[in-house]
Design goal:
With 195 residues, the chain is an alpha+beta fold. It is built from four helices and 13 strands. The strands form four sheets. The protein has a six-stranded mixed β-sheet, with helices on both faces. A three-stranded mixed β-sheet has the order 5-4-7, with no helix packed on it. Strands 1-2 form a two-stranded antiparallel ribbon.
């Protein structure tokens, strides 16, 4: 992969601004994120990862009013300062420009863990995502077991807890207070054979 496009876009490893990156990434065949001005390529995903991400989208779609909430998949970016990430699932209020390539106002973000993303999802992305004023909840989901790690903004203090709430077992339920909904883990993990 040379990293050069026919239209004179920057080399794959060349520093990029957010605006250049958001245009460049539209022409790529693989998933990338922008960190420290550099495009970072992500590997493909497992079947469990793909299905679990889709289950979150389905469960949220059943519970959230589409006139008020927009649910996006990993193809829609979130901007955090100079960083551009593609969370597995993103929820924001409706009304965004339909041609937009990103948002900086998500209300809920979900990442499904991969072996290569454990450290990033639980530390780097946690710090980045929870710095967003609009964010109310960040969920990290295991694809190996029915376990969720959840950070929800406290309504009174307006802060996120230092440690996540761990919700485990298919008989458990995730309550997302800011959205007024509950997601049963049995629904999210139905048909997913875990390790």
């Amino acid at each position: 992969m040379s990293g050069f496009a026919e239209d004179g876009a920057p080399a794959y490893d060349a520093p990029m601004t957010k605006a250049v990156f958001l245009q460049w990434v539209q022409r790529q065949e693989r998933r990338h994120e922008l960190k420290d001005g550099r495009a970072i390529m992500h590997a493909g995903t497992t079947h469990r990862h793909a299905v679990l991400s889709a289950r979150f989208v389905g469960a949220l779609s059943l519970r959230l009013d589409p006139d008020r909430w927009a649910i996006c998949t990993a193809d829609f970016a979130v901007e955090i300062g100079d960083v551009v990430r593609y969370p597995d699932v993103l929820v924001q209020t409706t009304g965004i420009d339909g041609a937009a390539l990103s948002t900086d106002k998500p209300v809920l973000l979900v990442e499904v863990l991969s072996p290569s993303s454990v450290g990033t999802d639980m530390t780097v992305k946690l710090a980045e995502y929870t710095s967003l004023a609009s964010l109310e909840a960040y969920i990290v989901a295991s694809q190996d077991e029915a376990i969720l790690w959840v950070w929800q903004r406290d309504a009174a203090s307006k802060t996120f807890p230092a440690k996540p709430q761990e919700i485990s077992g298919r008989g458990s339920e995730l309550n997302i207070a800011s959205l007024g909904i509950a997601l049963p883990l049995a629904e999210l993990y139905r048909g997913i054979t875990t390790a």
